[in-house]
Amino acid sequence: MSLILQNINKHIALTEEEQAHFLSLLVPKSIKRKQFLLREGEVCKHTAFVTTGCLRAYTIDRNGFEHILHFAPQGWWVADMYSLVSQQAGNLFIEAVEASEILLLSKSRQEQLYADIPKFERFFRILAENSLVTHRQRLLDNLSLPAQERYAIFCKRYPTLIQCLPQKYIAAYIGVTPEFFSKMRKELLRDS
User: DSSP letter at 89?
Assistant: First the structure.
């Protein structure tokens, strides 16, 4: 529980009573490797905080290709924000890359939290703003940068995941085929 409180304390200060109240609203959940937290077409009812492990959020196009939007390693939050906010069917899969422990905060309890401790609106606004900026920059990078530079950005953003993720996941994140990624990575290693 201290990891989530450290995450929150980066943006807002809580009293001990506020911390206890917040923690009482969370539901711990274990997820096995390759188990889904959310599937495309389902309504997202929770925001999840990863205490151990790693999740990935992705979509599958009409040709069956996966496009990974982001990873959620230890200490990160994850949800299908479109679905969570609109309460409409989502278009993301959220799946455990490895066995993971998460803390779930339901939409209704999050709304209750805003009423009980208004400074949490500031916290989640900061998370949403940071996410918006990051996703916009990623979109621009994907439109304008070559694969090698997108890979360098991935390495900077997720340094702890470089060695533990399957190469096909990294390829899906940077928008290339696994074969192209393997060839590119060999060239990068040869040139370094």
Answer: B
Token code pair at residue 73: 């390693």
Q: Which two tokens stand for residue 138?
A: 């990623």
Write out the residue range of the structural domain in which residue 55 sits.
2-116
- At 10, is the pLDDT very low, low, confident or very high (cuts 50, 70, 90)? very high
The pairing of strands 46-60 and 77-78 is antiparallel
pLDDT (tens digit per residue) in 104-126: 999 999 999 999 999 999 999 99
The whole-model pTM stands at 0.91
Please state, as a whole number, how many other Cβ atoms lie within 10 Å of the Cβ of residue 181. Answer: 21
Cα distance between residue 139 and residue 147, in whole Å: 13
CATH of the domain at 90: 2.60.120.10
**How many domains, in total, are found in the chain?**
1
